[in-house]
Specification:
The protein is mainly α. It contains nine helices and no strands.
Amino acid sequence: MASLDEALSIALDHHLAGRAAEAAELYARILAVVPDEANALHLSGLLMAQGGESGRGAARIARAVALAPDVADYHANLAKLFRALGRAEPAVACLRRALTLRPDALEHATALGGLEQEGGRKEPAAAAFRRALVLQPDLAEITLRLGASLPPAA
């Protein structure tokens, strides 16, 4: 019999190889035995979203976040699903939390800047893009996005 870590590893291998049915079955078996297994909740939520069930996937990842609130990737992935569902404010909150947990995450800073920019919030967008540039100063795309978020020169 496989340990929990081994079962999760096998499920993730199936998931990454595109064998969604096999991955879903293993995630379900893991959760039947350990309903509050945050990794399995998170990964199965991602699998659901990849299969077109963003709402169910978001609910599952939100449960993982509640169980393991200090995992930045859970917050970031929940933000992606909230964004896909048209829920910008919770997505922004999730990305802010992800950045609090992982201040060096370029992808979280960039995503936050984009969401803020889409919402017309120029100052928070500029702050997020500045943060991204501190992390990686040579990114032309981020420099351009920062410029677009700044007010016009007087």
